[in-house]
Amino acid sequence: MTVVLGTALLAYFIYAPFEQVTQSQAAFTASLWLSNIYFSFSDFNYFSPEAGNNLFLHTWSLAVEEQFYLLWPLVIFAFLIKIDTPLNKTGNKQRELLIGLSGLFIISLVICLYWSYVAPLLAFYLMPARGWQFALRGIIFLLANGNSTIHRKVESRNYYPLLAYLGICMIGLTMFYLDEQQVYPGFNAILPSLGAALLIYSGVAAFPHPLIRFLSLPCLQKIGDLSYSWYLWHWPILLLGLNIYPAAGLTVKTGLLILSLLLAQLTYSLVESPLRHYRLFTLRPALTILLAIILMSTTVIGIKGWELHSSQLARNP
């Protein structure tokens, strides 16, 4: 909410009224965690110029995440109910959860591959086509924290370094061949997703290998701490800066990214971290939920007012 309101306030003073209309519409859906649906049905190609000028384009991935996490507990609960039925002879929760998540992985991946070629915007923005990536996280977690045959074999033969370097190579390879001409997500999303999964899985090794030790350096962990806030700030700051300086070169763009990093640090220190660790909120989750609803409702109403105001100004300048 802090970033949405801060970006909206800056856009109000920097953008022309007719430009504010689409910005306010996207901000409204972002406040409700629905911006991915807005972009998927607004003919916003992620790489198109009109999409690239939207200050809230990057919130689509956060919307997918929140929508999935609303369903995730229900999915796990359904799997656990199945496990505890009298018909289940094994009672092996880890095995049954792995089977359930694998099924979810396959179904979602099939949807992703199909939509990528017949409805690419739906495949890119909507949660059903991205669920396999979340299911992959669950599978990796279960494998890394269980006693499966696969995990025992990897551990006994110390395949962790091999998996780590294979994973980083898969991610790196994607950087060289993936561009706006490629179909995405589709098959092209499998390589970086599996690479990230292998890299994460290799981190459970009892004796960390060099790559994991490097990725565990304090400076890199610091970037990890700030990654969420930095992701939120980097896109609107970059676009707002380029709106003021359209011919900006590499130096200005780098400065804008550094500015967004500084804002990320402020947000992390003053908003994100205090709220997450504030004792009253940790002891009273009902109060946390109530305050979150109030904040979201207030933000949504304020953004809707901005949308109506900008639409009126655009019609009657």
Describe the structure.
The protein is an all-alpha fold and 317 residues long. Among the domains are: 33-146, no CATH class; 151-211. 77% of the residues lie in helices and 0% in strands. Helix 1 (2-14) runs antiparallel to helix 2 (17-31), helix 1 runs parallel beside helix 13 (218-244) and helix 13 packs across helix 14 (250-277).
The whole-number mean of residue pLDDT values reads 88
Proportion of residues in extended strands: under 5%
Q: Uncertain segments of ≥5 residues (pLDDT<50)? A: none
What is the chain-wise order of helices and strands?
HHHHHHHHHHHHHHHH
Q: Give the N-to-C terminal Cα separation.
A: 29 Å
Overall outline: globular
Main beta sheet: strand number and arrangement? none
Helix content: over 70%
CA-atom Rg in angstroms: 22 Å
